[in-house]
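BUG: 3D viewer hangs when loading the predicted structure for this chain

Environment: internal workstation, default settings.
Expected: structure renders.
Actual: progress bar stalls at 90%.

Input used:
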Amino acid sequence: GTPRIPEGIQDRPCYLGIDVGMTCHITVSYDDDEGNPHFVLFDTVPAAFLMERVKELRKTFNIVQGAIDRFPYTEIANSLRDETSMIVVPVQYRGNSLLAPVNEQDTKILSHYSSNNTLLFDRVQALVNARNMTFSGYHGQKDVIMAHMTDMVRNEKPGDQVQAEWMKTSGNDHFFHSVA
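Structure tokens produced before the viewer hung:
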């Protein structure tokens, strides 16, 4: 990949990933003709400026879909969902499905998605292992991204759990979550 930030992509659908926290970690990607993701932007922004940054990115990239983790900043995630007219939807790590919609009980309108993070992270690992994912647009953050992408490890023997689980080693895994 290259650290160069692209001028923007408007001629193909792009996807936004956000790991929310005091500092939000943002990725923008598009899929090639085989469905493999190409990440063209890795960015960070303080949570207080997330909404404005997403507005800027939507002007630069043809963002058609996105995800933001629902916890612990549920209010920010829901505000972004509403501000983007559900283009960016909160995701919580819970359940057995790769991705399942969760509707508001009273209105039946989409609230967020539920995702089994083991299945989600396994997909990222498979793409990386097969070298079917590319990174660019990381503007000086190559070492940070490499650290984040290697922070999560798969525990094959999770004890009483039926399914293997992914665990943090240092807690610096933010871009891994954004990529997922």
